[in-house]
Amino acid sequence: AQTVTQSQPEMSVQEAETVTLSCTYDTSESDYYLFWYKQPPSRQMILVIRQEAYKQQNATENRFSVNFQKAAKSFSLKISDSQLGDAAMYFCAYRTHSGTYKYIFGTGTRLKVLA
Amino acid sequence: NAGVTQNPKFQVLKTGQSMTLQCAQDMNHNSMYWYRQDPGMGLRLIYYSASEGTTDKGEVPNGYNVSRLNKREFSLRLESAAPSQTSVYFCASSLAHRGKGREHEQFFGPGTRLTVL
Known about the structure:
The complex is a heterodimer of chains A (115) and B (117). With 115 residues, chain A is an all-beta fold. In chain A, 0% of the residues lie in helices and 51% in strands. Chain A is globular, with a radius of gyration of 14 Å.
């Protein structure tokens, strides 16, 4: 069975600095998708960035980028020029590409942004 | 476009009471999902509906039932609430349940915070 691990329950970053959130996963599949979701205090789950496993190029969305290491099964999120509005819970998620096609979420990392 | 809406936003129940959580989407999506979020556990899939007329169990279905009322609406029912069902419940929808493109990406509602005493 696939698993997703986020080993950092909480991280802090100074405003305008860069922070990296870690995510590792375990799977025997070769084709799958990975996501980072942001959950602010409003509880709304917001998709931040997605990565297809068959693409070697790391995904980028404005200030958010990923470091996808398929062999190491690692998928970290880098937030550049951190802003106060980036403070939230961040969830890493894995989507299977077979069977139930379900999403598997990590336990989350709470990011604090310090002014 | 409201996206995915959920009602109620908050609910307190006593053990043994029943209730239905409502979810609706206006994006013409085919697939809908119910998750629960517990502290330190991430989101876990309770049930999903790949398309109108079908429902399937997810990771933690015990104690719940679902109804895909039509393409827009997917409800979650607790027949006899237990304190272990205290959680935040999220509904999500996607254009499709499977596929290689972005059609499987899930859009989430704002959640329902349920407390069972």
